[in-house]
Amino acid sequence: MTKTICFANNKGGSGKSTACANLGYALAKAGKKILLLDGDMQLNLSLSFFEEEEVLSLASEEKNLYEALRKQSDLAECVIPTRYENIDLVRSTMLMSQIEYELFTKMQRELVLKKCLKQLKEAGKYDYILIDAPPTLGTWVINILCASDYCIIPVEASPWGLFGLANMFDFLKGLDEMTEAEVMGVLITKVDERKNYYRQTTEILKDYENIRLFNTVIHVDSAVEWAQDRSLPVAEFKKSARSAKEFAELAEEVKSYGSRKRKHGKSK
After folding, report:
1. Fold category of 3-256 in CATH
2. C-alpha span between 24 and 37 (Å, rounded)
3. Backbone angle region of 185, left / alpha / beta, with phi > 0 → left and psi within -120 to 50 → alpha
4. Distance (Å, rounded) from C-alpha 223 to C-alpha 239?
5. What are the b/e assignments for 62-84, b being 16+ CB within 10 Å?
6. Residue 154: closest CA among 247, 263, 264
7. Backbone phi, psi, residue 227, to 5°
8. What angle do CA 118, 123, 128 make, to 5 degrees?
9. pLDDT, one tens digit for every residue, the chain (268 residues)
10. 90 - beta bridge partners?
11. DSSP of 175-226, one letter per residue?
C-alpha cells in the first residue's frame, strides 16, 4: 500500500524541505518508488531536484498543484519525472500563496487534497508519497494532514528550534476527529554537538508524552548547502557526506516503522 508522509512544523527553518527531499532520494536508492509533492509556495522541494529556471518554467504551466486543488481534479496530471530513477514530483507554483482563499470556497475544504490524491494512491504505483508542508497551521496544512497517513516533525537543535512546538502538538490534537495521520516521529536537525542545544532539545522533547524521537539525527553539514546550490540531493553531490549517510539511516527507520509492534501506539 502507498504510504503518505508529510513533513510539518509551524516554525520555518526547521529543515522540512531538506528532510523531505533527501529522505525521498534515500528511499528511492533503496528501491522504493517515490512521489514528492511540493506544498510550499517557496518551491524549495522542487529546487532540490530542478534548476531554478526549470522550476519557474514548470510552475508557470497550467497543470500544477494549485490548479488541481482549485478544480478538484486528479493530481496524476501534475506529476513529472525527475532525473532520478524512482522519483517523481507533483509540480507546484507560487500561486500556492492563494490556496487558503481557494480552499475556503470549497465544500469539505479540509478533504480537497485527499480527494485529488485518491486515484494516485489507489493505483499503487508509489511506495511513498512525501509532502512538504508550508510553515503554517492553516486550512492548507489541515488538508495535507487529512491526506497523510503519517507526519514527521523536523525540529532544529537551536535556541529557537522548539519555539511554537507546543502549538504544533495542540494543533494536531485538535484534528483528532478529522484526520488519522499519526506522528511517526520528531526528527532533530541541524545538530552541532559542540553546542548544548542538541542535548537541551532532546531532553525537552523527551518530556512530551507519547512522542517518538527518531534514533537518527541530522547534523549540520556544509555539503547540504552546496548540494542545494546545485539543485541536488546531498548524496548525489557527495556520497560520503555525513548527512547523506544519516538520511540513508533515516530511510531505514521509516521503512521499518509499522513492521513491528509499536511501544507507544498512536502518537498525537
Report:
1. Rossmann fold (3.40.50)
2. 11
3. left
4. 10
5. ebbbbbbbbeeeebbebbeebeb
6. 247
7. -65, -45
8. 80
9. 899 999 999 988 899 999 999 999 999 999 999 999 999 999 999 999 999 999 999 888 888 999 999 999 999 999 999 999 999 999 889 999 999 988 988 878 899 999 999 999 999 999 999 999 999 989 999 999 999 999 999 999 888 888 878 888 889 988 888 888 999 999 999 999 888 888 888 888 888 777 899 999 999 999 999 999 999 999 999 999 999 999 999 999 999 997 644 444 444 3
10. 37, 79
11. TTTT---EEEEEEEESB-TTSSHHHHHHHHHHTSTT-PBPS---B--HHHHH
How many CB atoms sit inside 10 A of residue 260's CB?
7
Cell 528501491 appears where?
31
Q: In 3D, which of 111, 68, 62, 264 has the Cα closest to residue 183?
A: 264
As given in the structure block, the three cell numbers for residue 250 are 533515516
